[in-house]
Design brief:
Layout: H1 2-9, E1 15-16, H2 17-27, H3 33-45, E2 50-51, E3 56-58, H4 71-83, E4 89-93, E5 109-114, H5 119-128, E6 134-136, H6 140-145, E7 153-158, E8 165-168, E9 171-174, H7 176-185, H8 196-208, H9 213-222, H10 226-236, H11 241-244
Helix pairs in contact: 7-9, 9-10
Length: 246
């Protein structure tokens, strides 16, 4: 059946859940929904199909974005994990998007996101550990005057609940879906990543890596950016409209 699925949809950039169900029904007219869900799981598990939105799939396999962490990020993660073992947090550097950009910013920023209630305790702890250039929820003037001029500034911000994060080489970091939403949402902090630069970055990411748009828009909704981001992606990027509107 795998080869039949590939043959049926090989000329398509994407196809819907309904189309896949109808295809299976040609061979199994009495196919039940529960069995069909298992078939989808099996095809995804064997990397025959990939989810790209709520009801769309593709045969085009793209790897998951797995960013490497630098020495500072690894050190931050290790110290915080040891001091706050139950805390949910993630850390990443803007260096991880260099491969996706046309113009690379001169100074990277390290982003540390922790549960809101732990912002102050984590900030105090890191100060005790002699981490320099540490800024907690910086305002516009602080960003412009100090952060953009600092080497390896560390930004401590609250982690939105149910954020899509992942563990890569024992460090909890961002996912591509979270990264795109955060870059779009925090326009002051990520001023170098806006407009055409962000559109270029997203197009490159879409062509190179797997993006789960259901996950992306769920997170964007939690940040109250779902409608605005959808409009930006529709107007400024090359992502097919059927994916965005699914």
């Amino acid at each position: 059946m795998t080869e039949q699925v590939k043959k049926e949809f090989r000329e398509r950039e994407s196809f819907s859940r309904e189309e896949l169900f109808s295809f299976f029904r040609k061979f199994e007219p009495d196919l039940k929904e529960t069995t069909f869900r298992w078939r989808i799981y099996d095809l995804k598990n064997r990397k025959v199909i990939t989810s790209i939105s709520k009801r769309l799939f593709t045969l085009i396999f793209k790897p998951v974005f797995k960013p490497d962490s630098g020495e500072i990020e690894r050190n931050l993660f290790s110290k915080i994990e040891n001091r706050f073992p139950t805390l949910k947090f993630c850390v990443w550097s803007t260096k991880i998007v260099n491969e996706l950009m046309l113009h690379i910013p001169a100074r990277p920023i390290i982003i540390l996101m922790v549960e809101k209630e732990a912002l102050e305790p984590v900030y105090d702890f890191l100060k005790e550990q002699n981490f320099g250039n540490l800024f907690i929820q910086p305002e516009e003037k602080e960003i412009e005057r100090y952060i953009f001029e600092s080497e390896s500034a560390i930004i401590l911000n609250p982690l939105v609940s149910k954020s899509p994060i992942q563990k890569v080489n024992r460090v909890t970091t961002t996912t591509l879906e979270k990264l795109i939403v955060d870059l779009y949402s925090d326009k002051l902090l990520f001023a170098s990543f806006q407009g055409n630069e962000l559109a270029y970055l997203i197009n490159t990411a879409f062509n190179r890596y797997s993006i789960d748009f259901t996950k992306l828009f769920h997170y964007a909704k939690r940040r109250n950016k779902e409608i605005d981001l959808l409009q930006f992606l529709s107007d400024k990027t090359d992502i097919p409209k059927n994916i965005l509107n699914d």
